[in-house]
Amino acid sequence: xxxxxxxxxxxxxxxxxxxxxxxxxKPAEPNGGTTSGVEDVALVERxxxxxxxxxxxLVERYQHRIFSFCARMLQDRQEAEDVAQDVFITxxxxxxxxxxxxxxxxxxxxxxxxxxxxxxxxxxxxGRSKKRSxxxxxxxxPGALADPQDVPADDRIADAQRAALVxxxxxxxxxxxxxxxxxxxxxxxxxxxxxxxTGLPIGTVKSRIHRGRSALARRLKxxxx
Length: 225
Known about the structure:
Blueprint: H1 37-48, H2 52-74, H3 77-94, H4 104-125, H5 134-138, H6 153-170, H7 175-186, H8 191-198, H9 202-224
């Protein structure tokens, strides 16, 4: 899990990451709740001015979504923790560069998208791309945050296995298709938001989502029959 920073502000320019990680907590409301973009912008401005409390608020607000995105992209929990950590460090160090020309969430997801794709390329170059087992994927696949007390044991096992297989199938998509499918179908972002995050025309975004969904449907049909 991503663990909470005790002292998030770097003490020197060459300090790249804090000693203690961000804590991934279950969000009170899905997709960041009803927080307004105006509040986000105000917090970013405070971070740029050196306000650590504002940074902690934004971490609490977005850590779950960012970690989930990274996990679905990277298919590796430890790598996802590291990249999510780096995303928030980038936010902390570059808050002054946010101009409010897009939503803050869009800006943050753009950072996450770029860093996950860079990490995938890095791992591939070193032969360290990791395909995980169904049991490993079940821990953080879609639906993993459901309250286990609300679901019978047999159903929990079946749901976890199905979720793991779906997550594994998502991991077989090419990275450019995987990113847009996750942003659209898992994060429920609009085509316009995904266009801003990826830098692609909306038509290209829609085309990649369609192709990604088609490939995913074929894969799942082979799995589930």
